[in-house]
Amino acid sequence: MNNSAGNTVRLLWAGLRALLVLTIVCGVIYPLAVTGVAQGILPGKANGSEIKSGGKVVGSELIGQRYDLPLKKGEETAAPDLKWFQPRPSNGLGSNSVNTQYKLILSGATNRSGDNKDLIDWVTAAKAAVVKDNSVPGHPVSPSAVPADAVTSSGSGLDPDISPEYAQLQVRRVAERNHLGVDQVEKLVEQHTDGRTLGFVGEPRVNVLQLNIALKELVNGG
Questions:
Q1: Which 8-state DSSP code applies to residue 144?
Q2: What is the layout of strands, in order, in the sheet containing 205-207?
Q3: For an engineered disulfide with 197, which of 45, 116, 168, 201 has Cβ 3.0 to 4.6 Å away?
Q4: Rounded distance between C-alpha atoms, residue 54 and residue 58, angstroms
Q5: Distance from C-alpha of 152 to C-alpha of 49, rounded to nearest angstrom
């Protein structure tokens, strides 16, 4: 009986020592080591790929933002502020109805098939809006010129980038709204177009937040 009790105590003490050691190694030393290496080698990415403007953090290059006018009384969805480059659609996932004290960012795909009526209606309405918003006097936008990313959300719904084609489609409207030359805005798009990663991964892309920051600086004479 005494031997059995002694063995139990020894096993418990061994388990507690293992728990303590693993807690210190895995819960303290390892996270500190990983954080230190990340901060030393890739501090920007380790801190969330923050984008700054005017000395303030205004967003992340990994998460898209909306550029809308203030919501008017009676409106369910705010109208886009057309002086800015607009991102991909991101409102297909509904809104936070669980705890309305907080405004949540909902991430995920709609999971609707290509022949789903709701999806077809969304895409049709989005294409009509893109054509209407971006047509300027003397330069109407053809529906066939609207790229897919202008009317569909990404898998996460938070894509920060648009295609160079969609950015180019918005150039004349942005130039007109901000009283700029088309060539000035085209140059901005060209300067903020990133190629394929490693030359072959993914597609060319334009980060909308970085492009709009550059646009603001141009408009303000910066």
A1: G
A2: 161-162, 205-207, 193-194
A3: 201
A4: 9
A5: 25
Residue 101 has a pLDDT of 54
Run of H or E residues at 59: strand 56-60
pTM tops 0.70 = yes
**How do strand 193-194 and strand 205-207 relate by DSSP bridges?**
antiparallel
Owner of token pair 């909902």 = 106
CA quadruple 49, 152, 65, 203: dihedral, nearest 10: 30
pLDDT surpassing 80 at residue 110: no
Distance between CA atoms of 146 and 54, rounded to whole angstroms? 34
Give the tens place of pLDDT for each residue, 174-199.
Answer: 999 999 999 999 999 999 999 988 88
Looking at per-residue pLDDT, the higher value among 127 and 59 belongs to 127
